[in-house]
Amino acid sequence: MTRKLLEQLLDSHVSIPMLVVRDGVIVSQNAAAQALHGEAGRPIGPLLDARSRDKLAHAIATAPASCEVQARLGGDDLVTVRIAVVALEAGEHLLLVASVGAEYSERMATQLLAANDQLANLTRELSRRSAELDAARSRFESLADLREHFISMLAHDVRGALQGIVLSAQVLEDSNVNVSPEQLRSAAGRIRRSGARIASLTDKVLDAARSEAGAIVLDAHPTSLRGVTAETVDTYAPIAARAEVGIEVVDRLDNEIVTADPVRLGQVIGNLLENALRYSRAGDVVTVELTDAPEYLRIVVRDQGPGIAADLRQRVFERFVRGAGRPGSLGLGLYVARQLVELHGGHIHVEDAVPRGAKFVIELPRSRGRTEPLA
């Protein structure tokens, strides 16, 4: 911009205040600017508050630029103005001053309210997305826990049946050494039943894992308690024999039946037998007693081990809680037993056995009618 053009601009009757500033001093201005603050030759700094002076200095340093400042124009009161800064030659800057009136303030207020509403909407959306992420993370953690639960249950349930298969297979391998045909048939039968039990338990665990809630569904129908008990005891007989522990069945029933899932009921009795055998010593006897009452049938599994401390009797049915003594337990057998008994509408508890050991008592609702023992 030439000096002559600048002088013509300042001499014109433009209503916008215009000032030329050099080194912080007003060196020239138009009539509109003079009417606001007086004659040229005075520093521009005193016309602004402290913060506004910094803003104007930054605008001058980065010209062309603009800034909104608080200025004293024609009095001591501060008013809001917007200053546009244009760089001239020889270190001078042209300042164009625009008053920020009520219309501008209202427009800014409207924009601020709109921005505030938008921010509130974004905050709500962020909260919603955060809640969804928390729910997804919680579901992922629940699924991970559920997967671990099913894997642990399957490993526990399959282990007992596999032990029976291994020991029965050893009988078959030793068939040429004082083994009767009846023992061979019995060993082969155990292998067949144990294999079928493993397949059935695996299917049931997988079905529960595939369900959305991970719930165990019982295949309940009228079932002979005597038959399920006999089959389960026969499965664990080789394990007991290897540990030199006897299993005695005391049957006081008259072919009473229960409405139950025979595979799951056999799993409960098997878990109690496995627990009893684990804490038995050579020469001990584990007793399985079947009795009845007007409203329920009772299964009692009694061992001659060290027993269970009073403060542990409630917690022993919790997941991964193990009694003191023999290693090798996952701490799941009694937990699974309680879950399955309760699914059948029954309950389970533990008592002291006399003169020593532990006595696990299951009570199941009885069904009307009778049935023949399972084949």
What features would you describe in this structure?
This protein is of the alpha+beta class and about 375 residues long. Among the domains are: about 5-100, PAS domain (Beta-Lactamase), CATH 3.30.450; about 220-375, Histidine kinase-like ATPase, C-terminal domain (Heat Shock Protein 90). Helices cover about 45% and strands about 20% of the residues. It is built from eight helices and twelve strands. The strands form three sheets. Strands 2-1-5-4-3 form a five-stranded antiparallel β-sheet, covered by helices on one side. It starts with a helix and ends in a 10-residue tail after the last strand. Residues about 370-375 have low confidence and may be disordered.
- Radius of gyration based on Cα positions: 45 Å
Query: Class by helix and strand content?
Result: alpha+beta
Beta-strand level of the residues, as a percent range?
15-25%
Topology as a string of helices (H) and strands (E): HEEHHEEEHHEHEEHEEHEE
Give the overall pLDDT as a whole number. Answer: 79
What is the compact description of this entry?
The protein has 375 residues and is of the alpha+beta class. The protein has helices at residues 3-11, 31-37, 50-61, 102-173, 181-210, 225-242, 262-278, 333-343, and strands at 18-22, 25-29, 65-72, 78-87, 92-99, 221-224, 246-251, 257-260, 285-292, 296-302, 347-352, 358-365. The strands form three sheets. A five-stranded antiparallel beta sheet has the order 2-1-5-4-3, covered by helices on one side.
